[in-house]
Amino acid sequence: MTARFLCVGTHHKTGTVWMRRTFHKFAEARGIPIIRIRPRSDPSELPATGPALVVNWASAFPRWLLDSPEARALHMIRDPRDVLISGARYHLTARTGNEKWLARPRPEFGGQSYKERINALPDLAARLRFEMHHKHKATLAEMLAWPYGHPHAVDLRYEDMIGDTDCALFRGALDRMAVAGFDIDGLVESYWTHSLFGGIADRGNRAGNVAAHIRSGRKAQWREALPRAVARDYAADYGAALVRLGYATDDTWVEDCPEEVAGAETAGAAPAARRHGT
Prior knowledge:
Blueprint: E1 5-9, H1 16-30, E2 34-36, E3 52-56, H2 63-67, E4 71-77, H3 80-93, H4 114-120, H5 124-132, H6 135-145, E5 153-157, H7 158-161, H8 168-177, H9 184-193, H10 208-213, H11 222-225, H12 228-245, E6 260-262, E7 272-274
Helix pairs in contact: 1-9, 3-4, 3-5, 5-12, 8-9
């Protein structure tokens, strides 16, 4: 049976804006339905005929959909250590109109919102630890819950895709999925247009939600921006998850982190590493 549902899933701070714009803009231009699916959705929510773009930005697709011979899925993850750093930075300044959950008063924070609480903390280390045990914990659980190796899915890593300047990896993923109604050349063009190495390489071309979400997009930011004391805590809590996801083989990576991060007390400052004794 020919596949006609192209399912696209990411996780918070793993390239969601990039993938959303790539696929949404393509589908909108061609009149392809865009369906935001939920874990408890049923097949009646999908069109009976023709192609459809099916998205879930927590990659929480119903299993019946992933198992359907009419569906193919593209799923992207990112090094959780970089997800932690990116998330903590973003939640300090994010516009709550786009992220309503950030502004909601929370009893567990004494009536403060998530954004108010993280901003009230005294320094980078405290903010990272807060993020680590709240939003990041949930995001990491989503990544671990994905059925890696599913025959209908293509799993991608942000670290590979951010260097995919000739779009070969993306094109290869589309070729493997071969979903009817989704022109590969057109999707590759949209992918390049919305990439940091392509159409939005110039900061002046980033506007609105794109500018708010994207800071640098570099991989392995944790080597410069994750203080070693926080890294030790992270390894204690989530070291096994890093190994399971293929981002580490043990906890020795902690020693690659800086003892201090310069400018860390400033929310918008680009951190520069300062290792002990250098």
